[in-house]
């Protein structure tokens, strides 16, 4: 397997990463990891949706900053994913174990190993020398490189002897130091290599299959992915330099899925007393967003509606030992919106139906129910968790609408019996980072070259900290659905429409067409006269098409053509 050859990048100031993942006490060696995409999105909730889907790509660069010559044995990068479930009461039947961990994925990039990497190569894709701005071509075979180094050293010595180059002593001393390092690396068989000062970049790439579970952080279970960089140094008292960086995977609906735009429609009758139509404006919503809900309530009898509640429930289940052990957490309920009747109209949202009127028209409502965000809960245990696809941690949500109704008691008309009608429907709760700005492609006029590769802040927190600057979030608010509107009882008059602007070249009027001789249909015939050698009589021939002149000065719409000796004859 070929090892990537080092390349020198131009000097950009030699800036050290602001917050390295790991560094030595002396600061001579530091590690940092830069990701091309700070968030990776996996599409599809069902197996049929992500079976043949293109995987997400984990891409980035491992950067090793060397401030002084350092001996290094190996440089490795590992990507791992682990699922963990906790059982405080113990895992039955023995109840000796309290935690179960499962490895989901593991991948190793052996970037550098002193025993296998060729001489004069550090396995890096790019090396930025601390001296600055010189690009170095790909590494040549060791024999050619040594020959070039020998010839360049002789040339530098001759220039130094003749004094034709200023400041050559300092540069020669630096070159001699590098030659010593190269000599040590060429002749060393001790299992390490001397790295000169510079910044070494190692690029990596890995496809992430959509069947892998997303990142999960629940009360008694989690799924985490991380990159772990390791640098091994020789010496009994020098430990490994280890740096870790977490990778976040987010689950989103599939591109062809209709869950985001397709509404949930419910139309039912309640005991021949009330007919209700309910429309929920989608089947998937991110945390911190609003859920548009429209109601159309048609009373069929003297029924009262006192209250409307929109709620959401979260169900969490844990599994272990190949699903032989199962635990169900208590259902968590969240009130999203509540609308109560005023005290004036007999506490009835449908109006006063007890005034002798047998029938009443439908009543419509539209509400925007707010899903709690990450910044609206006081404790970590009260936070909402997105839907999951991991087999050992199942989280799913239901939206619940409760109507508080009452009707007259058949045994005693002075009393009323109260009921609560509950309408439940499953829906997908997405991560708060699963917004249109993150999932969709960016607009061409909003491309930002200075975008950082670090994890962006939570939209729930950023929207509260900067309410005036969050223009995209305001524009993406769902507008009223208007799906249950009645026709207007006072439409505008017909003459209220604005006529279209006049044409620059208007077509001919009707009077201009009928004013032609023979009328409109008379212009469909064209007369042609033929001259024969034996007979000079004229024959009228109908050509079956119209040659109509729209000129106002021409009174005859038929064209007459007389053939001569050189003209072409027209036969009937």
UniProtKB/TrEMBL annotation:
Residues 152-165, 549-572 have a biased composition (Low complexity). Residues 1-20, 145-179, 450-511, 526-572 are annotated as: Disordered. Residues 489-509 have a biased composition (Pro residues). It comes from Lipomyces starkeyi NRRL Y-11557. Residues 169-179 have a biased composition (Basic and acidic residues). This is Arrestin C-terminal-like domain-containing protein. GO terms for biological process: ubiquitin-dependent endocytosis. Pfam families: Arrestin_C, Arrestin_N. GO terms for cellular component: cytosol.
């Amino acid at each position: 397997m070929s090892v990537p050859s080092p390349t020198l990048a131009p000097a950009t100031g030699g800036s050290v990463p602001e917050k390295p993942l790991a560094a030595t006490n002396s600061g001579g060696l530091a590690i940092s990891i830069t990701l091309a995409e700070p968030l990776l999105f996996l599409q599809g909730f069902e197996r049929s949706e992500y079976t043949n889907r293109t995987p997400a790509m984990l891409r980035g660069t491992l950067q090793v900053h060397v401030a002084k010559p350092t001996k290094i044995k190996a440089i490795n990068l590992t990507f791992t994913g682990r699922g963990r479930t906790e059982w405080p009461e113990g895992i039955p039947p023995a109840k000796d174990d309290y935690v179960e961990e499962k490895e989901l994925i593991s991948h190793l990039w052996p970037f550098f190993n002193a025993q296998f990497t060729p001489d004069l190569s550090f396995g890096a894709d790019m090396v930025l020398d601390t001296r600055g701005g010189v690009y170095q071509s790909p590494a040549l075979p060791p024999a050619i490189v040594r020959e070039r180094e020998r010839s360049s050293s002789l040339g530098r010595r001759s220039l130094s002897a003749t004094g034709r180059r200023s400041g050559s002593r300092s540069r020669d001393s630096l070159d001699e130091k590098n030659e010593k390092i190269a000599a040590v690396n060429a002749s060393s068989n001790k299992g390490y290599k001397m790295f000169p000062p510079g910044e070494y970049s190692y690029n990596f790439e890995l496809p992430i299959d959509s069947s892998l579970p997303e990142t999960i952080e629940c009360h008694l279970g989690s799924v985490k992915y991380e990159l772990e960089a390791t640098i091994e140094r020789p010496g009994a008292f020098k430990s490994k330099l280890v740096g870790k960086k977490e990778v976040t995977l987010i689950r989103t609906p599939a591109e062809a899925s209709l869950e985001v735009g397709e509404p949930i429609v419910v139309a039912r009758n309640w005991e021949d007393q009330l007919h209700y139509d309910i429309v929920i404006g989608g089947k998937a919503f991110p945390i911190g967003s609003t859920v548009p809900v429209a109601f159309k309530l048609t009373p069929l009898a003297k029924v009262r509606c006192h209250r409307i509640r929109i709620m959401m429930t979260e169900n969490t289940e844990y599994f272990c030992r190949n699903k032989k052990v199962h635990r169900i957490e208590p259902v968590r309920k969240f009130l999203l919106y509540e609308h109560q009747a005023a005290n004036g109209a007999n506490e009835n949202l449908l109006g006063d139906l007890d005034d002798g009127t047998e029938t009443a028209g439908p009543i419509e409502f539209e509400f925007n129910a707010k899903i709690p965000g990450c910044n609206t809960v006081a404790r970590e245990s009260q936070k909402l968790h997105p839907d999951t696809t991991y087999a050992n941690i199942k989280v799913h949500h239901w939206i619940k609408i409760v109507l508080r109704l009452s009707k007259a008691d058949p045994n005693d008309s002075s009393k009323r019996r109260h009921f609560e009608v509950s309408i439940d429907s499953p829906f997908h709760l997405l991560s708060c980072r699963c917004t249109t700005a993150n999932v969709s492609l960016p607009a061409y006029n909003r491309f930002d070259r200075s975008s950082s590769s670090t994890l962006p802040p939570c939209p729930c927190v950023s929207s509260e900290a900067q309410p005036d600057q969050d223009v995209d979030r305001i524009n993406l608010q769902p507008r009223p659905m208007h799906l249950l509107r009645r026709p207007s009882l006072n439409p505008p008059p017909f003459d209220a429409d604005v006529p279209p602007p006049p044409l620059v070249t208007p077509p001919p009027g009707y009077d201009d067409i009928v004013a032609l001789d023979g009328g409109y249909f008379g212009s469909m015939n064209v007369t042609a006269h033929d001259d024969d050698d034996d007979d000079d009589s004229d024959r009228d021939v109908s050509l079956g098409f119209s040659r109509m002149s729209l000129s106002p000065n021409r009174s005859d719409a038929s064209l007459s053509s007389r053939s001569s000796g050189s003209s072409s004859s027209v036969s009937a």
